[in-house]
């Protein structure tokens, strides 16, 4: 019998997360601790509960630029090896506690150099935290090193991704405000990564429209699209029929993964509401859609909660949640054998057990 999963049941499902920012998922108590230890003076409050409320309220503005401002505080306290290692370790624990079996977590090494760390020290500190956390909590975590699109260090960061790809860095990304900073500004980095047979994703189609998506795919060769929400602008709906434009048709035909983050997309104004989020239509049209958290602290969310919202709004059952999860694992930058092992040995059996253990019919 098909059932509508509850939040607690979803937490037990073996899930996959592809789009999660390390500096966007720090525990509020850890932010306060690290601020006190480092002498960081700018926190709006040092009480963990009040700090959580502040982050969520500041992020819930409808503006991507305002949303990004909240990161000044989390990044501000992540400027030492000890801080970076602690945040990565706790991230692994938090994701494992949410039932995630594989995750790719991204961060921008260039933002953690204020107190004298080198790029290499930043990467190694994060890798150390994830290695220890992954081992202790039974989760596989790969990292994506991110270049900021308004800066000029993308080649440096791309070289860093290649240098550490056998140590746990599984890919590269660019992030930051899209408007005025097209991905083609970093074309040399993407061409280098392609020559090195390296994986990369590009934030595109979140704060800007179809040109950002087109450039990310056709000029830069992105393996995945970070968000990709505005692909909906190339789809015309007439009643029960949908007509895809050339770009949307290409994205679907090529099975280009969309790293969608429903709550975050609403907060930044990329979607009006969960009910109006393009994910519903794109799932019906069988795009390669994945569900993600983006920034767990700012959005006050988890992957289980993102799934629960989709269940509530779209009436999804276990088959839908498994479809999203398998999509994510297929699209991961992990080796093919690892992906196959998790899909067939962990994800499908885990969902099968949950699916047939329920007794509550869908409404």
Structural description of this entry:
- It is a single chain.
- The protein is α/β, with parallel strands linked by helices.
- It has a single domain, classed as Alpha-Beta Barrel (TIM Barrel).
- The protein is built from 17 helices and ten strands.
- It has helices spanning 7-12, 28-38, 48-59, 64-69, 71-76, 81-97, 119-137, 154-163, 187-195, 210-219, 246-253, 262-267, 279-284, 296-299, 303-314, 318-331, 336-357, and strands spanning 15-21, 100-107, 140-148, 169-175, 201-204, 224-227, 235-238, 241-244, 258-260, 289-291.
- Strands 1-2-3-4 form a four-stranded parallel beta sheet, with helices on both faces. It has a four-stranded parallel beta sheet with strand order 5-6-9-10.
- Helix 8 packs parallel to helix 9 and helix 16 (318-331) packs antiparallel against helix 17 (336-357).
- The longest helix is centred in the C-terminal third of the chain and has 22 residues, at 336-357.
- The chain is globular and about 60 Å long.
- The protein starts with 6 loop residues before the first helix and ends in a 6-residue tail after the last helix.
- The model is unreliable at 359-363 (pLDDT under 50).
- Belongs to the metallo-dependent hydrolases superfamily. Adenosine and AMP deaminases family. Adenosine deaminase subfamily.
- Its cofactor is Zn(2+).
- The record marks 227 as: Important for catalytic activity.
- One of its GO terms (cellular component) is cytosol.
- GO terms for molecular function: 2'-deoxyadenosine deaminase activity; adenosine deaminase activity; zinc ion binding.
